[in-house]
Structures are given as C-alpha cells and as structure tokens.
Amino acid sequence: MRLQIQKGNFCLLYATAMLLDETPERLIKDLGHNGKRQPWLPNDPIEINFNIQEIVDLALRRGIALVEIDACPANANIDGQPGIPIWEKEKWVARFMQYITSYKSLIRCRYHNRHRDHIVACDGEMIYDPIGRILDFDTFFQKYVVECAYVAVDTQ
User: How does pLDDT run across 17-55, given as a tens digit for each residue?
Assistant: First the structure.
C-alpha cells in the first residue's frame, strides 16, 4: 500500500484509492462525481462528499467485498443510551485486531477530541492516514476512536 495525501476533505476517496491501489481520479470517473456535487442535484454550493455505500458498490465491481466489522459490537439500547457490548472487551478487541491484521481494510474513526468521522486505510500492518502519515497500531489507537472496519475480501 502506498500513502496518498488527500486534497480537500475527501478522506474516504483517498483511503479507498490506497486500499484498491488506484488513483483518486480513476475512482471519481467510476463513481460518476467528484464529491462536490451529484450530477442529478441542482447546483447547490453544498459539498456532498462520498458515501461508504458508493465505495462498497465500486469495490464489488472490482471483485472485492467490503465486510463491516464493528470495533465494539453492541446491542441497541431503546432509550438512546450507548448499547451494551455483546462480548467482554478482551474478546471484541481481539476479534477486531484479528480482522484488521488479516485483511486490508478501511477503518472509520474519529480523533479523540472531535466528532467528525475520518477514514484511513490499513494494509494489515500499518495505518495509512490520507492526511499524510503512516502510523503503527499503537500510535493510531492513541490518536483515534475507532468505530468499525470495512475489511476487503476477494470474491473471485
């Protein structure tokens, strides 16, 4: 995997380009839009960015299934409180690590002090952050709160 530094606020696009070893320009062509506006919407000044479902479809067309793995699987809680984990912490941490060290993946996360989602790529050994850095797992987990991974499974 080679580091690609994002232009603009398009971490999902650049992390996907790293995962698939393609250029962002090629992905933009295949997605049919550049993340700034959808061709079927009016010319609004709103930046719409990209959605993981577009990336799931794009990867499937290339013979790769992106399987979502929650960092901490939990049952939903009706009153809006955080869900209850379905396993003890040691099990869900070990499970998550097993997946991200066995497969290339995209990892959805956020900085500890921010609420905005961020996406990075992982080659099973290192984290490739499209803001311009390559991190080991220890450093990554110190800087980010992880929500889930999308592990890349070859379908062919």
Answer: 999 999 999 999 999 877 776 656 666 656 668 899 999
pLDDT tens readout for residues 53-92: 999 999 999 999 999 999 998 887 777 677 888 888 899 9
Please state the domain count of the chain. 1
Provide the phi-psi class of 120: left if phi over 0, else alpha when psi is between -120 and 50, else beta. beta
- Residue 83 token pair: 């869900």
Confirm whether 6 is domain-assigned.
no
Residue 5 lies in a domain: no
Is pTM beyond 0.85? Reply is yes
Whether 150 and 106 have beta carbons less than 8 Å apart is answered as yes
Query: CA 94 → CA 9, 30, 70, 129, 133, distances in Å?
Result: 32, 36, 12, 22, 25
Q: Which domain holds residue 103?
A: 11-154
Count of alpha carbons within 13 angstroms of residue 59, beta-carbon side? 28
